[in-house]
Design brief:
Blueprint: H1 21-32, H2 47-50, H3 69-72, E1 79-92, H4 98-113, H5 118-138, E2 140-149, E3 153-157, E4 162-179, E5 184-186, E6 194-196, E7 200-218, H6 219-222, E8 231-251, E9 271-286, E10 290-299, E11 303-305, H7 315-326, E12 335-337, E13 341-349, E14 355-362, E15 366-367, E16 373-374, E17 376-383, H8 393-399, E18 402-410, E19 417-425, E20 428-435, E21 438-441, E22 444-447, E23 449-457
Antiparallel strand pairs: 1-2, 1-3, 1-23, 2-4, 3-4, 4-7, 5-6, 7-8, 8-9, 9-10, 10-13, 11-12, 13-14, 14-17, 15-16, 17-18, 18-19, 19-20, 20-23, 21-22
Length: about 450
C-alpha cells in the first residue's frame, strides 16, 4: 500500500479514496494524533513480548496491575521515573493481495462506464461481484501506536505507607473492515452507463490521551502481617481518557455509478471528542520464587460515540454508509464501550530473579477504541542479565543483554498467535513481535501481525 501527498498541502491525500482505504485509515490516525496492559489500549515496551506481567526490571509494568508500583520503588528510594517508550503494530486480514483486489474493483468501475454494450458492462460487473465475497470475509486491517515521555513517575510515601504513580500516555488506533454489497448495472436496460455498489471499507480511528493516578501499598502491613512467607500488595488507579474518534465509510461509487474521486483532507472526515473516567483495581502476591496477581480493568466501563457516517459530504461515501445501514450491515450511531475485564498473571523465578517464566490470561474480552475485540493469553521466558561491577562493568552492562522470548494469542476475532523477542541493554529495551501466519502483499509474504517497541527506563 502506498500513497502520495501533494506538494501544495500536507493535509490532502491525492489518491482516490476507493483505491486507497489503507491510506485513508493511516491518514485518519495521523490527523487524529497530532500503554498499558488494559486490553483496550496498545501496550508498548516489555508488554509487547511478555504481556501484562510484573517484572522488577520493567518500570513500565506499573501501568499493568496498579499494585505493581509498590515493588518497583525500593524501600531505600523515594522516586523512580521512566524516560521514554514508543511502539507500533499492525494486523491484516486473511486476504492475499488486498490492495490489488481493490484496484481491480476500481478499474472495473471505470471500465463499465465506457463499456458501450450490455455484454461488456456485464463482464465488469461479474469481476466485481466475484471479488466481493472474499473481501467481505477477510478484508480487514488495524494499526496502532503510542508511547509516553518522562512517565511513569513513582513516588514512595513512608507517611502513607505506599507508592503513588503518575502516568501519561498518548496513542492512535485505526481499523478498517470491508463490507460487501453486490454491484448492479445502472442506466437504461440494454445500454447501461456503468455499475454501482455500496461496498466500502468501514474505517474507524481514534487518538487517546490517558492520564492516570494510582496508589499501591503492602496490604498485609496494615493488618500487622510480617510478610515472612510472602507479601500481598494492593493497588488502585484512576484513569481519565480524552479521545477523538473518527469514522468514514470509504466507498467505490455513488448511486449513479460515478467513481469516488474526492480528495481526502482533514475537513472531510467527521469526528467526535469525548472524555470518560475508568478505574483499575489490582492485587499481587510476591513470594520468594513465585508471584501471582489479578487486575480488574475498566470499572465504570467508559464509553465513546462515533460520528454518524451517513452524514458524509462525499456522495459515494454517503451512499455506501446509508445503504449498508439500511441493510443492517452497520450501526450508523455506533459507540464503543470499554468493558470491565479481568486479567490474571503469574510467574515462577529463581531467588535472584535472573530467570523467569511468566504468563497472563484475560478471563473475558473487551473492545479497543476502534472496536477490535481483545482477549489475550501470553507466555514468556526471560533472562535478566547480571549487573557487572568494576572498571569494565558499565561497558559489559550494555554489551550483555537481558533476553525475553514470548508468545501471545488473541482468543477472539482472527485468533492470531505471534512470537516476540525482547533485548535490554542497561536502561534501553527493544521488543519485536510477529505472527507465523502470513499473507501476500506487494509481491512478498508478510506476517499478518507484527510490531516493534523501544523503551528507556530506570531499572533495579
Amino acid at each position: 500500500m502506498t500513497f502520495r501527498l501533494p506538494s501544495n498541502s500536507p493535509n490532502v491525500l491525492t489518491s482516490r479514496l476507493a483505491r486507497r482505504p489503507f491510506a485513508a485509515a493511516l491518514l485518519l490516525s495521523a490527523v487524529a494524533g497530532g500503554v498499558q496492559a488494559n486490553q483496550s489500549l496498545f501496550s508498548p515496551g516489555y508488554g509487547l513480548t511478555v504481556g501484562p506481567v510484573f517484572n522488577r526490571n520493567n518500570l513500565n509494568s506499573s501501568g499493568y496491575n496498579p499494585a505493581n508500583a509498590q515493588r518497583l520503588v525500593d524501600a531505600s528510594e523515594s522516586v523512580r521515573v521512566g524516560l521514554l517508550q514508543a511502539g507500533a503494530q499492525y494486523t491484516l486480514g486473511d486476504v492475499d493481495d488486498l490492495q490489488n483486489s481493490l484496484d481491480r474493483i476500481d478499474a472495473a468501475v471505470t471500465a463499465a462506464r465506457s463499456a458501450g454494450s450490455q455484454v461488456a458492462a456485464q463482464a465488469q460487473l461479474d469481476i466485481v461481484n466475484g471479488l466481493l465475497p472474499t473481501l467481505d470475509r477477510g478484508g480487514r486491517f488495524s494499526v496502532s501506536g503510542g508511547g509516553s515521555l518522562l512517565t511513569p513517575l513513582l513516588i514512595r510515601s513512608e507517611k502513607l505507607q505506599g507508592v503513588f504513580s503518575l502516568q501519561a500516555h498518548v496513542q492512535a488506533q485505526a481499523a478498517g473492515r470491508f463490507l460487501a454489497d453486490n454491484a448492479v448495472l445502472v442506466g437504461p436496460v440494454g445500454a447501461p452507463t456503468g455499475l454501482s455498489t455500496a461496498s466500502a471499507f468501514d474505517v474507524k480511528a481514534a487518538t487517546i490521551t490517558q492520564l492516570s493516578l494510582g496508589y499501591s501499598t503492602e496490604v498485609g502491613r496494615w493488618f500487622g502481617h510480617d510478610g515472612a512467607n510472602g507479601k500481598l500488595d494492593g493497588g488502585l488507579r484512576l484513569n481519565r481518557y480524552q479521545a477523538r474518534l473518527y469514522r468514514q465509510l470509504v466507498g467505490f461509487t455513488d448511486a449513479n455509478g460515478n467513481s469516488n474521486t474526492g480528495n481526502f483532507d482533514r475537513d472531510s472526515v467527521s469526528s467526535r471528542s469525548a472524555s470518560a473516567l475508568g478505574v483499575d483495581l489490582g492485587l499481587n502476591w510476591q513470594a520468594e520464587n513465585w508471584q501471582a496477581g489479578a487486575t480488574v480493568y475498566n470499572l465504570g466501563q467508559p464509553s465513546f460515540a462515533y460520528p454518524d457516517p451517513t452524514r458524509d459530504a462525499n456522495a459515494a461515501n454517503q451512499y455506501a454508509a446509508t445503504t449498508l445501514a439500511v441493510n443492517g450491515r452497520i450501526d450508523a450511531l455506533d459507540q464503543v464501550k470499554l468493558k470491565t475485564h479481568l486479567v490474571l498473571e503469574g510467574s515462577i523465578h529463581t531467588a535472584n530473579k535472573r530467570w523467569m517464566l511468566q504468563t497472563s490470561y484475560a478471563a473475558n474480552e473487551t473492545p479497543n477504541f476502534v472496536g477490535d475485540l481483545q482477549k489475550f493469553v501470553t507466555a514468556s521466558v526471560s533472562y535478566n542479565a547480571e549487573r557487572f561491577e568494576g572498571s569494565f562493568g558499565s561497558l559489559l552492562n550494555y554489551l550483555v543483554p537481558s533476553i525475553r522470548l514470548g508468545w501471545r494469542k488473541n482468543m477472539v476475532g482472527d485468533r492470531l498467535a505471534s512470537h516476540g523477542l525482547g533485548l535490554s541493554w542497561g536502561v534501553v529495551n527493544l521488543d519485536v513481535q510477529a505472527s507465523q501466519a502470513k499473507v501476500q502483499a506487494d509481491g512478498s509474504r508478510v506476517p499478518r501481525s507484527a510490531g516493534a517497541s523501544l523503551s528507556i527506563a530506570e531499572k533495579f
